[in-house]
Structure formats: C-alpha cells, structure tokens
C-alpha cells in the first residue's frame, strides 16, 4: 500500500511543498515545475479503475477513486500548476511557492477523493493553503 500511495499525484505535489524549503532560492523555481510534471505523469500512468482503500478507527475509507472524468480534471489542475509556476518564475517568496503547491496537491486530492471524509480532509487543506 505504501508504494501505491507514493504514486498518488496529490501526495507527490504536497511532498514537493514539504521538500521545497530545503533548497536554495535560485533552485526553487525550477524545482517548483518538477512536481506538477511528475504528478502529471502519475495522472496518466494511473489505471482508469484504480482505487485505494484504507481503514481508520474501524471505518473503511476509499482514499483514491480514479476514473476518466477524474483524469481529465487532474490533468487540468496539474497543467494549471505547471503554467502558474512558469508565470510566477520570478517570485522567490517561499511562502507563496509552498502554499501554491499545497493548494494544487489538495485540489488533486479532491479530484481523486473516493469518500466524503477524504474529500473533506483535502478540501480543508485546500482552504487552509489558499
């Protein structure tokens, strides 16, 4: 399950937001573009009927539910993040870069949410990062 969760596009972008502060200011803009590109590859490598189940406190959760419509919206969100990174290339503020990646990752999480609890967690993370 850990390897399956590692390739989840939302977690790739959110992990990028956690890794970004450890790099130099001159490298961060380039690195910012890497995470949505890898997430886009993850979106297109994910099978159409992919789902990821977990249990928490006796409840069965459907963390990821992929489909053709979710692939379209995830592609759009990954492209917007990538092109937004190109547009904001000159901005070197770490807080804005990290917030943008967390927002994009949580938007991808909302797209792939398979149950209401997962949707709520990613939605609140999206609201917090905005």
How large is the radius of gyration?
A: 15 Å
Percent of residues in β-strands: 5-15%
Biggest β-sheet description: 2 strands, antiparallel
Oligomer: single chain
Specify the structural class. mainly alpha
Total beta strand runs: 2
Uncertain segments: none
Alpha carbon gap, first and last residue: 30 Å
Mean pLDDT: 88
Topology as a string of helices (H) and strands (E): HHHEEHHH
Q: For the largest beta sheet, what order do the strands appear in spatially?
A: 1-2
Number of helices: 6
Overall geometry: globular
The helix content is 55-70%
Outline the secondary-structure elements.
Elements lengths: L1 H5 L2 H11 L5 H21 L5 E6 L2 E7 L2 H20 L6 H19 L3 H14 L1
Antiparallel strand pairs: 1-2
Helix pairs in contact: 2-3, 2-5, 3-4, 3-5, 4-5, 5-6
Overview of the structural elements:
It is built from 6 helices and 2 strands. It has 130 residues and is mainly alpha-helical. Helix 3 packs parallel to helix 5. The chain is globular, with a radius of gyration of 15 Å. The relative contact order is 0.20.
Q: How would you describe this structure in keywords?
A:
two-stranded antiparallel ribbon; 130 residues; 10% strand; 6 helices; single chain
Could you give a short description of this structure?
This protein is mainly alpha-helical and 130 residues long. It is 69% helix and 10% strand. It has a two-stranded antiparallel sheet.
């Amino acid at each position: 399950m850990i390897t399956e969760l590692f390739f989840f596009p939302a977690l790739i972008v959110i992990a990028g937001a956690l890794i970004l502060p450890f790099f130099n200011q001159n490298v961060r803009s380039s690195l910012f573009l890497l995470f949505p590109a890898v997430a886009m590859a993850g979106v297109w490598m994910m099978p159409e009927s992919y789902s990821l189940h977990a249990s928490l406190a006796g409840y069965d959760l459907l963390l990821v539910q992929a489909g053709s419509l979710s692939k379209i919206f995830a592609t759009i969100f990954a492209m917007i993040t990538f092109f937004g990174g190109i547009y904001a290339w000159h901005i070197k503020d770490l807080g804005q870069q990290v917030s943008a990646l967390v927002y994009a990752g949580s938007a991808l999480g909302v797209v792939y949410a398979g149950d209401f609890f997962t949707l709520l967690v990613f939605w609140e993370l999206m609201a917090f990062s905005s």
